[in-house]
Amino acid sequence: MNKLLLCLLCAVAVFAVAAPCLADTVNGVLAEEQVINLPQDSAKWYVSVVGIADDSRYLEVLGWFNTNPNLAKLKKQVHFCRVTSDQPIYSERYEPNVKGLPTVRVQDGSGVVIYESAGKNIPMTARSLYSAIASSVRISRGLLPVLPWRRDMEKRCPGPCPKPTPEPGPNVDPEPAPIDDGGAPALEEPAGALTAAAIIAIALACVIVGSGVGLAVQWKRTYAK
Amino acid sequence: MKRIALVLVILISIVGCESRKVVTPTRERPTVNIPLSLRQSNWRGSEGEGSCVHAAMISLFRWQGRANTAERWLRTYGGGEWPDDMASKLNRDGIRFASCENGDVKFLEWACRTRRGCGITIMGGAHMVTLVHLDAKWAAILDNNRVGQFIWIPRETLIAEWQASFGWAITPVYSPAAPLP
Asked: For the segment A177-208, what is each residue's pLDDT rounded down to a tens digit?
């Protein structure tokens, strides 16, 4: 009898532990918590990738935002808007102002376009695209531009392209962006871009070397006779 | 002198110039400028009641890039709703949402500041519309019984109406459509 009671108690205890876990999953969907801390993300930037749903180039560019670590990181920091030409929102809000398809557009929280490229002007590789976006962001913040001859180095030496990742089925919305209070995205310095500190350091080095050489020449002229 | 000038010309040509063309976009009014084709009209549920809460949420799902969720919601739900039932449906479907049932104006300000918009109760709680704009003077709503145009109301009037109607507001929490450039 005691054993039976013990078994019953154990069963009740196990059920008590398991019940809250089961309550979270209904119809196979993990229930999300209601958002209590409202995200103060009004300054968050927007990245729109616009194109024709089954266009391979569009899918390739879209895939870069999953496969390229820098672009994937950027995607998590912004409102990422995936738009196809068959959606009503395209005809109302994108068709009148895009220059071609596919289009990659980066806007700040107030809607100012920081970077935009369309059609054949979209860089060939994910790395170049990230580099171009990072350059535009840097310029928008008033930082020193990348020297012209240093731009698009990757574009001139293209490497193997990442394969676009398969997109989810047509009846599933994309994975939502994480909730945070993010403002402007923090971008990694792309390869090939000189930082302001590096440019100042090079300029200082040139001044020092030039002064040294000048002094040496003048010294020779004055005292070597 | 000529050499210095030549060196300067070469240096300038190497460095180049880059100017930023900043085109400040005109602020959209209303802030949550839901296109006509994305607006969901009210419909009669299975028990003859209107489905204003669902219609308001569906318009917001579409605005926040959840078109498939919107269509699924339209097929699945309808009829009148109360806050608790709505919350349990949203939770069941794994939908991220925020709501307020105490008439706190900060919630409306947050919803419009972040460009998400929200459904709000009016007419003593008998109807829900979508709040699409709230600034220091004006508010704008989208009534799912007449989706053809936004209705502009003085801010204080709208707030008073909302607070006298149980002060319930609700919105999905996803990424709003990008602003017009």
From this structure: 777 777 778 777 655 556 667 778 888 888 89
Closest partner residue to B175 among A36, A81, A172, by Cβ?
A81
CATH at A96: 3.40.30
> Does B27-172 carry CATH code 3.90.70.10?
yes
Q: What is the mean pLDDT of residues A23-29?
A: 35
Its domain, for residue A86, covers 46-194
Residue with tokens 């030496």: A157
For the stretch A93-123, pLDDT in tens is: 999 999 999 999 999 999 999 999 999 999 9
Q: Report if residue A203 sits inside a domain.
A: no
How would you class A132 by CB atoms within 10 Å of its CB: exposed for 0-12, middle for 13-18, buried for 19 or more? buried
B114 and A79 within 8 Å at the Cβ level: the answer is no
Could you give the ipTM of this predicted complex? 0.81
- Residue B6 pLDDT > 80: no
Residue A21 domain-assigned (yes or no): no
* pTM recorded for the entire structure: 0.72
Domain boundaries in chain B? 27-172
Task: Report the alpha-carbon distance of residue B38 to residue B135 in Å, rounded.
Answer: 23
- Whether A10 is in a domain gets the answer no
Report if residue A216 sits inside a domain. no
Tell me the C-alpha distance between A143 and A136, whole Å: 10
Strand ordering across the sheet containing A113-118? A79-84, A46-51, A103-107, A113-118
The count of structural domains within chain A is: 1
Please, what sign has the CA dihedral across residues B86, B92, B96, B102? positive
A45 touches chain B (CB under 8 A): no
Give me the total of CB pairs closer than 8 Å, taking one residue from chain A and one from chain B: 125
Token duo for residue B72: 């699924």
The answer for B 102-141 residues in CB contact with A (under 8 A) is 107, 110, 113-115
Is A78 within 8 Å of A107 (Cβ atoms)?
A: no
**What DSSP character marks residue A49?**
E
